[in-house]
Amino acid sequence: MKKVAPAICFFLIFFACTSGDEASMILQVIREGAGFAEKHDIRALMEYATPDFKAQPGDHGPKAVRGILFRAFQYYGNFKIYYPRPLVDIGEPKTTAVATVYFVILRKDYVLPDLKALYDDPEGWIAAVGKKADIYELELTLTKKNSRWKVRQARINPLKGMPS
Fold first, then answer.
1. pLDDT at residue 47 in the model
2. Counting beta carbons within 10 angstroms of the beta carbon of residue 19, is it exposed (0 to 12), middle (13 to 18) or buried (19 or more)?
3. What is the model's pLDDT at position 82?
4. Contact 7/156 with Cβ under 8 angstroms?
5. Among residues 56, 75, 34, 67, which one has the least CA distance to residue 140?
6. What is the CA radius of gyration of the chain?
7. CA distance 7 to 4
8. pLDDT, tens only, 119-164
9. CB neighbour list of residue 45: distance below 8 Å, 6 or more residues apart
10. Residues 90, 38: Cα–Cα separation, whole Å
11. Per the CB 3.0–4.6 Å rule, which of 9, 25, 50, 82 could disulfide with 17?
12. b/e map of 21-56 (b: 16 or more CB within 10 Å)?
C-alpha cells in the first residue's frame, strides 16, 4: 500500500480542462491537480477519476482509493510534489492518452533546489533528484469524454535507473 499511495495521490492531479491542444490541457491539469493533492482535497481529486478507475498494483477501485488517499495524506502531512515535464502520448482519435510522470513527494519543509531549471530535462531532473530521494514512475491512462480528461488507470513503479 505504501507504493500505491503516492501514485494514487499523484494520478488524481490529472483532471478536466476545456481549451487548447490536448497535451497542453493535460500538462495544465497536472499543475492544477498538484495543488489539490497538496491541499489534501480528496473530493476534488476523485471527481476526475472514471467510475471504473483502477490503481495498480493492487487493482484498487474508486472507493478504496478514497481510503488510501486519506491515509496517505495523514502519513505525509504537509507535502510538496516535484516532477519534470510529463511525457504525454495522445491516441487517435484524440479521446485517449497515456502520460508518464516521474515524481517524488517530499515533506513541505524539505527543499530540492534548482529543480525548476530542470523541468524540461526529465533525464537531468531524475539524475539530480535520484541522488536525494526515491523517484516513482507513474503511467496514467486517460479518457476524454464531454471535453473532460479523466483517469481510467494509474500504474506506479519505483524508478530503477534511467528511463529508456
1. 82
2. exposed
3. 92
4. yes
5. 56
6. 15
7. 5
8. 999 999 999 998 888 899 989 898 998 888 889 999 999 986 555 4
9. 12, 13, 15, 33, 36, 37, 69
10. 27
11. 25
12. ebbebbbebbeebbebbbebbbebbbebbeeebbbe
The C-alpha cell that represents 40 in the structure block: 489534501
Cis amide prior to 163 (ω within 30 degrees):
no
Residue 126 · residue 135 · CB < 8 Å: yes
Taking the CA of residue 2 as centre, how many other CA atoms within 13 Å lie in the half-sphere pointing to its CB?
4
DSSP 57: T
Q: Which three cell numbers stand for residue 113?
A: 533546489
pLDDT digits (tens, 9 = 90+) for 17-45: 333 489 988 877 777 777 889 999 999 98
